[in-house]
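Example record used in the benchmark description.
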Amino acid sequence: MSRNIQHYTPGPKVHAAPQKKASRKPIIISFFVVLFLGAAVALYLPLRPQYSESEKRELTKFPKFSFSALADGSYFNGISTWYADTFPWREMLLNADSKIKSFYGIGDTVSELPNLPADEIPDVKDVTVAPTKPNTQTTVPTTEDEAVDDSLIQKLGSVLIVDDSGYEYYNFNRSVADRYVVMVSKNADSLKGTARVFDIVVPTSTDITLSDQVRKGINSSSQSSAIDYIYAAISPNCIKVKTFEALRFHRKEYVYFRTDHHWTALGAYYAYREYAAAAGIRPAELTEFTERKFDNFIGAFYNDSDKNKALEKNPDTVYAYEPKATNSMEFTNKDGKVIKWNIITDVSEWNRGSKYNAFIGGDNPYSHITNPGVTDGSSCVVIKESFGNAFVPFLLANYSEIHVIDYRYWNGNLTQFVKSKGIQDVVFLNNISATRNSSLVKKMEGIT
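Model output (structure tokens):
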């Protein structure tokens, strides 16, 4: 039986045409072009900012060359820090980042700071000397005020937003407050017989203008009780200036900014009147100054709240009161240069975040004013943080010479300075948050 067997006969081999690989050269070239342009832009000095409006600070400067800095590596570290801190279009990119974050919605959480347990504020009747052991309870006031719609209250980080106004939390820290007490007392005692020493602790808007209904529901220590404690513990050689009740009395007036943590010049004026009473000098009337007005001020609360829209839509107005005797002063900046300036500067065209700098040129290590309107040889020195800036201009009604020291940047010795200049009145002025800030108190301790 035969079978039909078919044999497979291979045909001719067929070779596929070779495929050309896609060229990567355009991609590689484009990458290096973009990289080169980016580096060129980053290194182009005119595009690198020198000041941050959103952070309200001078940005890192290009380091000065020295062989010692080159040897220890700090020169190149400084270049790296400068490069990272001053990248082109910095504000635009930060604003874009903030807008992206705003799409996340408003959370109901508060940052760590407001929720930290505050120390219990001792009763002033129990205070004889500055105590040293802290407690860990929070004191909350119980006063009441007009009703506020809960939907208008937002907690954004360490800032409380109520409608179109910002407020900061304050938690009493007994150990730091005691260090502040010792620092002021040391100066008052050492200068006894040489100069009078005054202490002004300024409350923040939270305990002055915030609705009592909202105030009683937040975790923030009683500023009035904290100030009473500090004043009771400070040496009797120091004259304490009480401003809390005066500011509360005027709470319906424009005594604090809404978008910023500072008081206004009007708030500073009411404190000045209390100072004048304590010092036994005549307080000037506001009509003795020339009122200046600078619109569209957006302060620190705006940035601290990730650029809250309610604050942005309702900017503050900076009112300043220019002395009629003189508007001239000079200050020594952080680079050691002496600059002639105005006591009240026209900041109408300045960026909206910098308009609090209308007062005495902002924060500088040392400032000096010679007043031709008072010729009795009287002098004072104000040791301050930025709250003191709006306060100083009013002193021209009473002193021939006014010295201003910002303890955050000044490196001298206060006692020696007072004695060498023949200063009669020494004024410590701090907002209450400075008395709970260990690093700031340390700086005050460093100049005494």
